[in-house]
Specification:
Layout: E1 8-10, E2 21-23, E3 26-28, E4 81-83, H1 93-96, H2 99-118
Parallel strand pairs: 1-4
Antiparallel strand pairs: 2-3
The structure holds flavin-adenine dinucleotide.
């Protein structure tokens, strides 16, 4: 039975889960193909200090203020998609000890935005 959605919240987790995939060639968001900004040279994905400010910890999908994913051109990639939780770029939640807080707060906003998109 196929189901169609007018709006989608992407909350599939980050590098630890299945929400972001990486290998030696790059980092990807596998479900919708949202853009995941990262340096082309993978030696720039980390710093030697294991407790340092690790670039890979901030990998994820960048969004606008409504949590809609941004493409490589900084334009909204999918207007009816919002992104929440560990899939998002920008915060090093392990260092901040903020993972659940970021997930809860952005989940609320992403859900509200999706509901508004589906029933304007
Ligand atoms: C070991 C560990 C300890 C942690 N300790 C803390 C802590 O002390 N404090 C804290 O604040 N946070 C902690 N966290 C982080 C926190 O628990 C959450 O993992 C984090 O907030 C991310 O939540 P999320 O909902 O964005 O993603 P996730 O919790 O990863 O949820 C993503 C969900 O999407 C599903 N999914 C992925 N791909 C697909 C697909 N294609 N189709 C269908 N479903 C899919 C996954 O199965 C999963 O259920 C810890 C995490 C880990 C791994």
């Amino acid at each position: 039975m196929p189901y169609a959605a007018e709006a989608v919240v992407l909350a599939t987790g980050g590098l630890v889960g299945k929400g972001l995939e990486s290998d030696r060639t790059g980092v990807r968001e596998p479900v919708l193909g949202c853009h995941v900004p990262h340096a082309a040279d993978r030696y720039e994905w980390f710093v030697d200090d294991v407790f340092g400010d690790q670039p890979y910890a901030r990998f994820g999908v960048r969004t606008d203020e409504r949590l809609r994913p941004l493409g490589p051109d900084d334009e909204v990639q999918y207007p009816n998609v919002t992104v929440a939780g560990a899939t998002l770029a920008g915060a090093d939640v392990a260092r901040e000890k903020s993972a659940s807080g970021v997930s809860l707060a952005t989940g609320l906003v992403a859900g509200r935005e999706a509901a508004a998109e589906a029933a304007p």
